[in-house]
Amino acid sequence: MKLIDREQIAAMNIHYLYYSLEYFLDTQAALGVKTIELWPGAPHFFLDSMTYSDCREIRHKIESRGLTARIITPENCTYQYQFAAQVPEIYEKSFQYFKNGLKAGAELGCKIMAINSGWGYWNEDREEAWKRSANMLARLAEEAKKEGICLAMESLRPQESQLVTTLGNTKRMFDEINHPHLKVMIDTTAMGVAGETLEEWFDVFGEDIIHMHFIDGNPYGHLIWGDGNHDLESWLKVLDQRGYKGYLGQEITDFDYFEKPDSHDMRNMAAYEPFIR
Question: Which segment of the chain is annotated as a signal peptide (predicted)?
């Protein structure tokens, strides 16, 4: 049963950290991938609160291989920048960092920047952290409008944040921001950890879901399809039934995949091939 278009599968470069960007791009082109979700992290791409890599050069490397960058996903878990930063100086530098992510994304031809709520201190009032996050996302939504990009907000696992970690939290933040350039993204790992389903997310958000980090899991882990316990075919059927035309980002982050990442991507694409139109 053919359920998705090839262009919907968006390869990410996080697990190619120890390989060159060119190696990653050559691998995806050889696998028949068409779409890239770029993780603008060193050494592949430099992005901070003051500057970023030459996007003309990076875009040429991508497009000369028959690929297209459609999503940019600035690092926001490992690096010091996050959406609800507590220290005012870091908060403003975080804003400039994500603003630069939007500018770089526009120069690369991306239409989406993936984001989340960030996190507050566990020993502070959650609502204070929530206010900082909402303020940051509202400001970034205005910047996204200027760049012609939509923000796509995902939920996080409870080990990562005490803010947006469930479907209900996502709905609250989405309604509070209420901006046409803030949309929704499903992370299937966070969804699975919360005990939620794709059907529930589509019931609440419908066409406002524009992107997904669509990976296998147990439910934890950001796994290659076949290494977890989710049912790829049944999930793809749900997406087909709901008319989902957005992207399926392959956010493969478990360190087991950092050695010989191309071999794991080969297995991943083999799982998808029977369902590609």
Answer: none
